[in-house]
Amino acid sequence: QVQLVESGGGLVQAGGSLRLSCAASGGTFGNYPMGWFRQSPGKEREFVCAISWDGGSKYCADSVRGRFTISRDNAQNTLYLQMNSLKPQDTAMYYCTRTQGEIAMTPFGQGTQVIVSS
After folding, report:
1. Residues contacting residue 87 through CB under 8 Å, at least 6 positions apart
2. Is a pLDDT exceeding 90 seen at residue 26?
3. Which string of b and e fits 57-70 if b means at least 16 CB within 10 Å?
4. Collapsing DSSP states into helix, strand and coil, what is residue 30?
5. Burial of residue 23, with CB atoms counted within 10 A of its CB: 0-12 exposed, 13-18 middle, 19 or more buried
6. What three-state secondary structure class fits 94?
């Protein structure tokens, strides 16, 4: 069973950037599509971006498209989320997981907190 640990969150001003990482261990990370989800206080968890097992196909939700980029390094068993032009509404806990389309296929871990100040 693969273990996923998110990192890279923090406090940033609006317009700034952050790069999130998701380190995988204990499984075959490179065999599966992966994705990022987020949950803001008082809101349901929502899909952010997903990437195919080989990185050849990727897409993001309308709310972040053009600002966020998902990528992966299968040799390093790591998933990334580059977040640019951050907005206060991007403030949330961010989680990585295996995905099928926009559906999470594994339990969510601890996540990494992103706070965007205005």
Report:
1. 14, 116
2. no
3. ebebbeebeeebbb
4. helix
5. middle
6. strand
pLDDT(1) > 80: no
Reported confidence tier of residue 86, pLDDT bands at 50, 70, 90: very high
- 29 is written with which tokens? 């990370």
Give kind and range of the element (H or E) at residue 63: none
Which of 100, 60, 96, 59 lies closest to 77 in space, CA to CA? 96
For residues 105 and 113, give the distance between their C-alpha atoms in angstroms, rounded to a whole number: 21
The string of pLDDT tens digits covering residues 27-49 is: 788 889 999 999 998 999 999 99
Give the separation between CA 69 and CA 114, rounded to whole angstroms. Answer: 16
How high is the pLDDT of residue 29? 87
Single-letter amino acid code for the residue at 4 = L
CA dist., res. 82 & res. 73, Å (int): 13
SS3 69: strand
